[in-house]
UniProtKB/TrEMBL annotation:
Keywords of this entry: Acyltransferase, Cell shape, Cell wall biogenesis/degradation, Peptidoglycan synthesis, Transferase
InterPro entries: Acyl_CoA_acyltransferase, BioF2-like_GNAT_dom, FEMABX, PG_Glycine_Bridge_Synth
Spans traversing the lipid bilayer: none
Residue stretches making up the BioF2-like acetyltransferase domain: 163-295
GO biological-process terms attached to the record: cell wall organization; peptidoglycan biosynthetic process; regulation of cell shape
Family: Belongs to the FemABX family.
An MF annotation (GO) of this entry: aminoacyltransferase activity
Species whose genome carries this gene: Actinomyces marmotae
PROSITE patterns noted in UniProt: FEMABX
Protein name: GNAT family N-acetyltransferase
Length: 354
């Protein structure tokens, strides 16, 4: 395993490729996103995404400052690299360190594979080498339900007033409607079809395209019950809402979820989220991240943010994702192609589809 030379900036930190064990030991008890753990490698492999490398960004004394796991991915048939919710910062995260780490990573990528146009990773501070994502959206603000009070009344008391009322009302309405909520993590593949259909209905209603069913099933099975759970609300045996929860250390994340239109009549989604929070609190988790809300950078998440803000008095700022060009010419070509497709679609929509 090799170490990068010091960069032209003169900073003392270096980049060193490591294995999973060394990265895990370096991170220790620092909170880390599930996507940066060894467990996530199994899920990425199930999607055909190979681990490209794990790296430690170390100080002059050799002690780790940050850790990052990077996977190979594709966009429009072209390769790129993705470090989801990475890097994990172990010491001070300054703008200078962020920029220096990106500089070292670009050099490493060029050294290993000049066909890679860009790296997608997270950063706190905006900078000239960071670009908005070519596809999909990110978030830099979220709401986390504080589970440390442990008891339902204490957890609810930590919420805003309208949130306290909402969760208790949802629990009562769902119970009166005859709903049953349970952990169905170990269900069989054949049973998952009905679960996925709830997501398909959600997608039709809300205007988005879901992943194929195997993406969600593979997440459950590859991560295993230690890191992925499926909580389901049923009425008369029929699934109406579900949450796919991932866990890393003492932190839980509502990674995916769905709800039927009918469930709105008995507040199914709220009742399920509240049940999930209470269940995870009993198991000793410290927070349930609702994974994304609106911010000045991402106004598209306004509606979901309005729902989630009831569960916590204050938002939690997180590092958003950015594209980091490695090969400027190839990245510019990808962006131009996207712009061209968007212009063609807009023109087609104005003229009508003939």
């Amino acid at each position: 395993m090799t170490s990068n030379d010091h960069s032209a900036t003169g900073r003392p930190e270096t980049l060193r490729r490591v294995d999973g064990r060394e990265m895990r030991l370096a991170i220790g008890n620092t909170p880390v996103g599930i996507e940066q753990t060894e467990a996530w490698e199994r899920y990425e492999a199930s999607q055909g995404h190979a681990l490209w490398g794990r790296y430690l960004y170390a100080g002059e004394d050799g002690k780790p400052v940050a850790a990052i796991a990077i996977y190979a991915d594709t966009i429009g048939g072209r390769p790129f690299l993705w470090a989801k919710h990475g890097p994990t910062w172990l010491k001070e995260q300054s703008p200078e360190r962020e920029a220096h780490l990106r500089e070292l990573l670009r050099a490493e990528i060029r050294r290993r594979d000049r066909a890679i146009p860009f790296l997608r990773m997270h950063a706190r501070y905006n900078a000239p080498d960071l670009h908005e994502l070519l596809n999909t959206i990110t978030y830099d603000r979220t709401f986390v339900i504080d589970l440390t009070p442990r008891t339902p009344d204490a957890i609810a008391a930590a919420m805003p007033k309208d949130g306290r009322r909402a969760v208790k009302r949802a629990q009562r309405v769902a119970e009166e409607a005859g709903c049953a909520i349970s952990d169905e993590t170990g269900l069989e593949r054949g049973e998952f079809a009905a679960i996925y259909e709830v997501l398909a209905e959600t997608a039709r209603r809300d205007g988005f395209r879901p992943h194929p069913a195997d993406v969600y099933w593979s997440m459950l099975t590859s991560l295993g019950p230690e890191h992925a759970r499926l909580f389901v609300l049923r009425r008369d045996g029929v699934p109406h809402c579900w949450d796919l929860i991932t866990t890393s250390g003492k932190d839980a994340t509502a990674y995916y979820g769905a709800s039927s239109t009918e469930s709105r009549g008995f507040r199914g989604a709220e009742a399920l989220d509240w049940w999930a929070a209470r269940t995870l609190a009993e198991e000793g988790y410290r927070g349930l991240d609702l994974m994304g809300a609106d911010s000045p950078r991402v106004p598209e998440l306004y509606q979901v943010g309005m729902y989630k803000k009831r569960y916590a008095k204050h938002p939690t700022e997180v590092d958003g994702a950015w594209d980091v060009p490695v090969n400027q010419a190839m990245y510019a070509a990808l962006r131009a192609a996207k712009t061209g497709r968007g212009a063609y679609k807009a023109l087609r929509d104005r003229l009508g589809r003939h």
